[in-house]
Amino acid sequence: MQAPDAIHLDTRDGYDRWSEIYDVEDNPLVMLEEPHVRALLGALAGQAIADVGCGTGRHSAWLARAGAQVTGFDFSEGMLRVARGKPGAEGIRFVRHDVMRPLPAPDAAFDQVLSCLVIDHIPNLAEFFGELARICRPQGRITLSVVHPAMSLKGVRARFYDPRTQQAVYPASCAHQISDYIMAAVRARLPIVYMSEHVMDEQSAVGSPRAQKYIGWPVLLMMQLAPR
Which residue among 33, 154, 176, 203 is least crowded, i.e. fewest CB within 10 A of its CB? Predict the structure, then answer.
């Protein structure tokens, strides 16, 4: 039987729709990413952390449990609805805001800034990186994760499958390359203090049927930038 036609939506509408299943679907990228994010952030107790593009609060929740004071920004009401319904969400400040616009936060308001699986949806990377730097304190860190650009060679970008129709749904995204992320940091005058590429291996793919077809491919790119 022929697969149903894919649906292409703008980013906000796509994530509103994705929010219904985001935390329960088989998502090998999220599974691979989360341990690497935790390892990069270090000690968190008492730190003020911005989770920019927080989605369902998957990072905000554990950051708060670790003792951080968390502010999550996102423009998807569907995603934020899920985030606000999680245990401990009452201790997190969630702000509905389009992160492609200047963030409603003072300069140097946060010890660390986190933006995970977001930057492949941002057209003007240098401007976005500069805004993350503005709200981060000097000697703080900006931690970023994104689907590896090599996945485009497999025709893969951010998408999910609607469980009701089996249609692939694609929120709008950008075809950035690794050089685009590097040059955005250069243009924003942000030193890159860490960068890594992560391949899906057999151990990482255990428990994820969707991950099997990506074994041997780089699926995740991590960066950490240092405001001065």
Answer: 203
